[in-house]
Design goal:
885 residues, alpha+beta, 24% strand, 39% helix, globular, nine-stranded antiparallel sheet
Amino acid sequence: MTRSKHMTSAELREAFLAFFESKGHARVPSGSLIPRQDPTLFFTNAGMVPFKAVFLGEESRSYARASSCQKCVRAGGKHNDLENVGRTLRHHTFFEMLGNFSFGDYFKREAIAFAWEFLTRVANLPAERLWVTIYEKDDEAERLWRELTPVPAERIIRSGEKDNFWSMGDTGPCGPCSEIHYDQGPGVPGDAVPNGEGDRVMEIWNLVFMQFNRDAQGALTPLPKPSIDTGMGLERLASVVQGVHGNYETDIFRPYIAAIEEKAGVGYGTDPAKDVSIRVIADHVRATAFLLSEGLLPANEGRGFVLRRILRRAARHGRLLGIEGPFLGALMSVVVDEMGAVYPELVEGHRHSARVADLEEERFAHALDTGLRLLDEVVGKVQSSGGRTIPGAELFRLYDTFGFPLDIAQDVANERGLSVDEAGFREAMEGQRQRARASWVGSGEEAVAPVYKEMVVHPATRFVGYEEMEAALAEILAIVRNGESVREAGPGEEVEILLDRTPFYAESGGQTGDRGHLLTERGRVDVSDTQKRAGARFFHKGTVHHGKIRVGDRITRARVDRDVRLAAARNHTATHLLHAVLREVLGDHVKQSGSLVSSDRLRFDFTHFAAISPHEIERIEERVNTHILENVPLATEEKGLDEAVASGAMALFGEKYGDRVRVVRIGEASTELCGGTHCRSTGDIGLFKVIREESVGAGTRRIEAVTGEGALSHVRGVEQVLRDTASILKIKDLSITPRIERILEEKRDLERELARFKEKAAASHAGDLMSAVREVDGIRLIVRRVDGVAAKEMRDLGDGLRDRLRSGVIVLGGETEGKVVLLAIVTKDLAGRFHAGDILKSVAERVGGKGGGRPDMAQAGGKDPSKLDEALSLVADIVRQPAAR
């Protein structure tokens, strides 16, 4: 299977997968970039992530050999390359990882032979340029490399645990690894040996030999079925196969660079600084397109915050290139053109993704303006205190909160004759990284308690709850109490019980777990929840009601709470209908981004940019209830994943699907992959009613709704409110609206009458206050205390005084509800001599407030009414020494 030397990246991807197919490997599609089943990860950052549960023994597949080309992102959390992207020729946020895997099937001999054959016979890399590193204690690997390949002994390098030993976490599967390196020749700077300085000898493929299990004490014991996990970046492979010295020179990135050159009017390779910006944009637009295609949206925390930083970093570098206005949305069409055939999700969500990118760029432009204003305030404080350096902590605050770049701050500082505390900025940045690592511990860190890892020795639970809600003859395989495995439990003890078969649905896909009870011959357990642990093992959480339960006991009756289950089923089926109707009413950009299905309500999060109007809510309710009235039977069947998707079933990104999937079809309205419980027909739902619609983040909306008895209860509650309101209004029927309209009109009439009265009172009051006019250095001045007057009324009073005074300065102050209200007015003819805001500043400070305002009128408040008279007495002296403007 020999190919020509200069293969394209698309040819390399296909050649790799086809090669391993010929070696008996299942070709497995890329998993999601967002590993929702693994809360320890920001993003999928390696090819093995979708197979993690298989390696841990928590899950089984229909194949023992697999290969894949996995979408990966390394930005945020433990693995974060973001700041290096663009500055080097190798770092990326998004990349594709080629990998082959063995789950207890073949081991080192085959892994080494496959890798050598692919690189030298398919990719046609010259054998004399390949180096190999092995773990310093792995004699078997050295022997196999020398036996199976022509690599000379001097090009097989032993390295320590840091470089050549891999573990999934502090405990668990681990083993030595062997890395294949490629010598790019003396034309590339760097050492002529692996793991040296520079890029001359570059790692291209890592073969991990998982052969041990590490316990909490660090002891290594051989695994009964050693496994293989390999990873090779497509971008690096393309660079060596195509004979270029950087990933950005490959055919992968050339289309993006050409599009950026055209947009910016600059050439790549003409200016090192501009080259960095071009590389940043070329990389980041791919990461942006892929993350948006999976329903992720920019946010201020978590994964969404990482996406926001990637987007804004690209937008910032666009500005450095002179690109005006949003441009990433348009550039994402290149990603679709180049990769849409392999990753169809890019095509399906392109319009939505482009719009999100454009909106985020517009927000960033506003954030830059805000950042410049805040930086100006920081600079002012530094200069007023006699300082010469902008603190690093302040710079990082602007960067972290607004995405305000350090280089812009440096430019501003240079213009003002200041320096920046770059070391302090870097220290704050590192502090944030440490916090991120603490919050998001990388792949392999323990996500569940150790006791559940022990449960992989038991078979997966067989779920029989689709057919029945009561079952017998199940066996108790394990009991967990207080985080430990126990043999028995007694009355009042809270436990989790693992059964070999159960009618109880375990929480999954947004649907909450079943409740009910378990009976044995010696005891009873009241089940409050059911959860999946250690793969597909169902744990029934509850309290021992009476008697004792023991491991090995037979369950004489496992009964699900029927009312709770049926209510949840109504809400789950309604969720499928709602999803379909939202796409019908709002557009096919709508994608599910989260859901909750419980017995009392349903909650559905989805991508959409605007609040849903009352008219749209009515249409949504009408369409869902039409499907309910049609009483369409639901059809379910099991299919292979590829077959199900090809038949039109909707698969949700981030959900974990096995080789066989359950397809739920509701007539022509909806077809989805779903393992949840449902009604037999749509008529069982009864009634669907939206009770709330709101935003839960940028570009994400949420609908909460109720069905069946919950909907009836909601309607009864609304009716009771109407009856109570009618009683208060003393009307016999429910014709509330006309009555309220009459009351509101009467209220408006009274408010107008009151306003007229206040105007007359203010005019009269102003007339009284005119007697307080005095002259100070030729300036007519009114300074009076007027208590019990609200801010607006004080403004009206001040306007009346100004009209009567014609020329002069007015300062009023009063106590209202324990607080001070202040007003200063300067007539137009004195605007060049006095500033109302400056006058008020000194007065406000005396009463615990802050001044400021327009030159002609300023208003302020204060906290200390006891100082009001003293504060007002200052006005005459202020007028004698005006601050000219």
